[in-house]
Amino acid sequence: MSLVFIIVASIFVPVEILARQEAQEEESPSPKTALTKSAIVPGWGQFYNGKMIKGAAFFSTQVFIGYQFFRYNNRLHQTTGEEKKQQVEYTRNTWAWRYLAVYLLCITDAYVDAHLAGFPEDDNLSLKLQPIPWGMKMSLNIRFSSSN
């Protein structure tokens, strides 16, 4: 009888432990996984963290910058004249640096966002961005409360 209990327990206990681990992973995303996914495909780490709009923004920005880089790279090979060639090369290199900067920002954002996933949100401190007809409005709200 005890042998049957040990066999049944050895089957169900690991399943329960795995189920608990999966539930914990669903609650808070892994920073390493978010970083890796974002390094493979820009925006994938943000999607993994549940930030769909941010992920789409990073992905589309990287596609646009990559397109610009390849556009100016093709133009560089078709350009004649030393001065014009230097100007196109400078523009192409600027797009390459922009790609690298946004790529690193995307990876860092996914990593930090995964770390802060379980951080409690507090209404006493908030930063809001709101579109207005002539630009953006940013407001910082700090609420102080006395505990007597």
Structure description:
This protein is mainly alpha-helical. The chain has a domain at 25-119. It is built from five helices and two strands. It has a two-stranded antiparallel sheet. Helix 2 (31-40) packs antiparallel against helix 5 (82-115) and helix 4 runs antiparallel to helix 5 (82-115). The protein is elongated and about 75 Å long.
* Percentage of β-strand residues: 5-15%
- How many helical stretches? 5
- Unreliable spans are 12-21
Shape: elongated
Main sheet makeup: 2 strands, antiparallel
**Portion of residues within helices:** 55-70%
- Give the CA-CA distance, first to last residue: 61 Å
Structural class: mainly alpha
Please tell me the overall pLDDT. Answer: 82
- Count of distinct strands: 2
SSE arrangement, N to C: HHHHHEE
Strand order of the largest sheet: 1-2
Q: From the alpha carbons, calculate the radius of gyration and give it in angstroms.
A: 25 Å
